[in-house]
Amino acid sequence: MSLVAIALLVLAVIALSWLYSFFSGRPWTLRQLQTRTFLKFALTGPELLTMLGILEKFGLHGHNARLSNASEAAATKQHRSLAKDLRILRSYSRKRLPPAALLSADIMDWFLDDAVYGERFRYHDYPVNQMFGAQSSLPDFMMNLHPVVSALEGRNYVRRLSRFGVKLDQVLEGVRIRADKGVIPPRFVIRRVLDEMRAFIRPAPGAHALCVVLDTKLAALPRVSAAARAKLVDMARERVRDTVYPAYRRLIEYFARLESRATDDDGVWKLPNGDSYYAYCLRSNTTVDKTPEAVHETGLAEVARIESDMKAIFKTLGNSSVGNPTRELKALGSDPRFLFPDSDEGRKACLDEYTRILAEMSADLDAWFAIKPKARLEVRRIPEFKEATAPGAYYQMPDLGGGRPGVFYANLRNMAEVPRFGMKTLAYHEGIPGHHFQLALAQEQKGLPLFRRFLPFTAYAEGWAMYSELLAREMGRYEGDPYGLLGSLDSELFRAVRLVVDTGIHAKKWTRQEAIDYMGQHSAQAEASIVSEIERYIVMPGQACAYKVGMMKMVELRDKARAGLGERFDIRAFHTVVLANGSMPLDILERRVDAYLADAKR
Description:
This protein is mainly alpha-helical. 61% of the residues lie in helices and 2% in strands. Helix 7 runs parallel beside helix 11 and helix 22 packs parallel to helix 24.
């Protein structure tokens, strides 16, 4: 055998060995393991691939014709895969890893360990609920994320509609298993989703939002003929009639029967091993080890502090006898000078004002940030079909391909819920320098492993968004605007109240009404918003606590850096340390800041 043949054989053996280790065994490097883990998530999740928007740049569109597998078998397979990857991750030596690789290993270890531990509570959630259940998230995904940019993607849209039955039946399978184990949503949750689903299937199929959105998007494509457009929309109408509506009717029939088994006990304490489940939810969302009692007490202290600051501002406005500052602010919320008309014109004016606020902030960042995202940000209204149970606002990140901007969605169901004095704070939180700034920057960090650009650590992401609210005050964005400043403090107070009511519901056995009453006493939010918020915490235990916990940790770390560096402290450098490495658990973020301080002192 010639030397060339021997060399080719050796190379073939090496290549096969690498391929086996990468796809099935123990990858040769930690970075390869991280890449494989992320790819397994992405490549087995067509909806995630659509959100990322990468494959389309290479002419690959097949994933846009499929929906992610929500079956019990798929969930079991994913758990086993994550457990295997955690074991492999811990088999690598970390002694010689450079700091960046060690950081990635620590973050991945935390994420996988949390997911593997959480498997014991796999059936403790409510897959169909009024906040983020499949019955609303799936059509929302179709209308807002599926890219109808060509006739091909129009056909893929129709193909996805034909898969609604399979997907929703898979979800229903999981709901039945939970019910058999005694995990049944509170009665109000069942009633909310029943009302939502019945309203969803009320329109004639051809007039349904799923068809109207497709028609509207196709109409904006000059290369799609009128005949082709009409054919696709007609196919969509048939899928809605023959597949989508029957799937929703099956859900409706089941939940109508399930309602008789539901109770008005709202906290997860009622579930099997409920106290342990809530402790897990708190740690998973806040990424710190705090007991429900400690979180509750922190919330009470923060509520008292912030209300004291608000009273001081009211005194400067000539009102020195304020007893409850949030009630005073709530009364101002009905003052016409702080409201937009509850009309189409008023809603457009509100969206325009959000856009102006964000543009003004964007022009004032250089003294505070050394890095900024390239992705665009748009302000849009939350789709009307989901406004009733949606939060006041949320953010949707851009895709990696650059075709879809980041979007700040505002709930405009009732303009009485959108007082002008709260608009700045909401725009800073959801947009710039909040969620859009942080999430878009994470996506754009080319040196980071892919998984680190997308990991959803709630305490970090929401902590940063709340820190952004505080930063806006420090930047002077409320100078000469005492009512806006009150709105900003009310936003922080709202998150402090969450610490109290979330732990109250799930650890102290508060009823839904007790939580609503407490928040009503300590928030200027409209009653409908308060009810929606409390109902959100009931189906998302622990998540609402992540905001204030994350913010307080970031302020603590900034104070630590400022005290350690004195006059050498640079706010731009500190923000780069926090933002340039993507999302991470708070204890790992603290180690990252400690390393930055050690380097800066040399």
